[in-house]
Amino acid sequence: MKQGRKTTFEERVEIVNFTIAHDKDYQAAIEKYGISYQQVYSWVRKFEKDGSQGLLDRRGKGLESKPNLTPEEEMQLKIKQLEERNRSLEMEVGLLKKLQEIRRRNRR
Q1: CA-CA-CA-CA torsion sign (98, 103, 104, 108)
Q2: What is the pTM of this model?
Q3: Where on the phi/psi map is residue 54: left (φ > 0), alpha (ψ -120 to 50), or beta?
Q4: Structural contact between residues 35 and 7, judged by C-beta atoms closer than 8 angstroms
Q5: CB of 36 closer than 8 Å to CB of 30
Q6: How far lies 61's CA from each of 2, 17, 33, 45, 66, in Å?
Q7: What is the predicted pLDDT for the residue at 63?
Q8: Which helix (H) or strand (E) holds 83?
Q9: Per-residue pLDDT tens over the stretch 10-47
């Protein structure tokens, strides 16, 4: 199994174009560019679905990286972000309460 490697956006576009131009010959792309089958296959699927924009790395991005969302999708994403923030704050409050409890016990 071929180990993947880091690639730039331009490299991903080139690899996908090569693969599609050669009738989706994934093996040729693997050998030529030194990347994994899973990665080539994934990029080709994303390219066919969303064009070259599908090949952009959007990890860690919020609403600003998704400009074509419907209002409903924006609200769902915002809710998800707020739920995650709420969960984080609840954990922090729980930890602080536990710390206070430990300090109270140690004072006695």
Answers
A1: positive
A2: 0.53
A3: alpha
A4: yes
A5: yes
A6: 29, 26, 28, 21, 8
A7: 53
A8: helix 71-107
A9: 899 999 999 999 999 999 999 999 888 999 999 999 98
